[in-house]
Amino acid sequence: MAKLYKNNKAFTGLEAALVLIAFTVVAAVFSYVVLDSGFYTTQKSQQVIQVAIAQVSGNTVVKGEIYGIANHDTTTIEKIKFAIGPAVLGTPVDYSRMSITWSTSKVLPTRLEFTGSPPVAGQWSIIDGSSGQGQNGLVNDNQIVTILACPPYPVSKNERFTLAVLPESGASISISRTIPMEISEANLLF
User: Fold this and answer.
1) Average pLDDT rounded to a whole number, residues 31-41
2) 138-139 and 93-94: which strand pairing?
3) Exposure pattern of 161-173 as b/e (b: 16+ CB <10 Å)?
4) How far apart, in Å, are the Cα atoms of 46 and each of 49, 53, 166, 182?
5) Radius of gyration in angstroms for the set of CA atoms belonging to the chain, rounded to a whole number
6) Residue 111 forms beta bridges with which residues?
7) Taking the model in full, what pTM does it have?
8) Tens digit of pLDDT for each residue in 93-104?
9) Inter-residue contact 169 to 175 (CB < 8 Å)
10) Separation of alpha carbons 148 and 66, rounded Å
């Protein structure tokens, strides 16, 4: 009877081909995962950039000087008057959704309430909407609104305060000033 002879050479070539195919499939799946995560990261980066551009273009800036209006006997400041508007080429700003906070070195930030009538202590209002306030509280382009803010208490000579104007979108405005030593009826604050 003839002896059967085993030859494993062909089988080894087949094993090598299968291993090569397995490595190719694994590499293809891995590259798909890497590309997909790269596309996802790029998409998220684009969204972050778009949100940042929208916030920057929605910025509000102080337009002009800031004044302190004294009480009748000119011993303290009772009202702060300033004008604000959108940044150059910015998007319209909705002032009906804006908030203002007041603080000093002795007083924690306190939110001033909006009122449609002349403000009293702890309130603020828009006193000059004729210079540009549109419908629904929107202000566009070069339009300016004048705001009158009344601190929760009268501010004394040489006292430093901070008003933070917080629009619905965009960066806040921080206005820090010191009351002068000599108070008159209307004071330019530095």
Assistant:
1) 91
2) antiparallel
3) bebbbbbebbeeb
4) 5, 11, 26, 53
5) 33
6) 101
7) 0.68
8) 778 788 999 999
9) no
10) 10
Q: What is the pLDDT of residue 123?
A: 95
Largest Cα–Cα separation, the chain: 131
Q: Are 32 and 144 in contact (CB under 8 A)?
A: no
Q: Rounded to 5 degrees, what are φ and ψ at 139?
A: -125, 130
Q: How far apart are CA 60 and CA 173, in angstroms?
A: 7
Q: What is the pLDDT of residue 178?
A: 94
Contact 88, 65 (CB under 8 A): no
Q: Which residue has the tokens 């820090």?
A: 176
- Encoding tokens for residue 14? 């087949």
DSSP assignment of the chain: -PPP----HHHHHHHHHHHHHHHHHHHHHHHHHHHHHHHHHHHHHHHHHHHHHHHHHT-EEE-S--EEEE-TTSSSEEEEEEEEEEPTTPPPEEGGG-EEEEEESSS--EEEEE-SS---TTEEEEEE-TTT--GGGEE-TT--EEEEEE-SSPBPTT-EEEEEEE-SSS--EEEEEE--SS--SEEE--
